[in-house]
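Posting for a labmate who doesn't have an account.
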Amino acid sequence: PFEVGDWILVDGAEGTVEEIGFRSTRIRTFYNSVITVPNATLVRAKVDNFGRRRYRRFKTHISIAYDTNPDTIEAFCEGIRELIRVHPYTRKDYYHVWLHQMGAHSLDVLLYMFLETPDWQTELRERQRILLDILRLANKLQVEFAFPTQTLHLRQDDGQLPNPSPTPPDSAERDAIHVGRNAVNEFTANAPWRKQTPPPFKFSSETDHTQPGASE
């Protein structure tokens, strides 16, 4: 069910398969220790092979300020969806980006997506690409991120009801979608990864963090 190099979890032992011997298998843990598991145990054990995953899930909430305009929220959500559609290592047939909940301090947008990467290093790199582009999108649409705070509102009641918000036009949702998509296409149009898929991440003796295709 696994081979050398796979990331597995078996009987509480988790790590990378380092050696498969005739009698036992050696697993290098993420604490750099080595666990030796008898093969007789592996025959009966339940083995979870993370190395065979095709997709790697990424789920988070993006908290934005309560005073964000509803049309801007719509454009922001659609912009994130567009980022998922255009990025090279993302799963294109299943993702969710929606205004998910009204929290105590923020409006929370759910980001639920999958990355199709061969290893953890490439997954981390591509996750960073997505998150940085979300920051650029928020800056372009003037979306402010929220943080825990308390605001005291003082209002003198004159007995009159506040004016109701205007009814949005029928085209509001469609217009917001166009705004979000156009914003993404403007700042990613010349991104190198739109022309050529960057190779998987590899550590280099010259530098630990960048290599061709990873730093653009």
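Reply:
Got it, the structure tokens are right above this. Residues 120-141 form the longest helix (22 residues).
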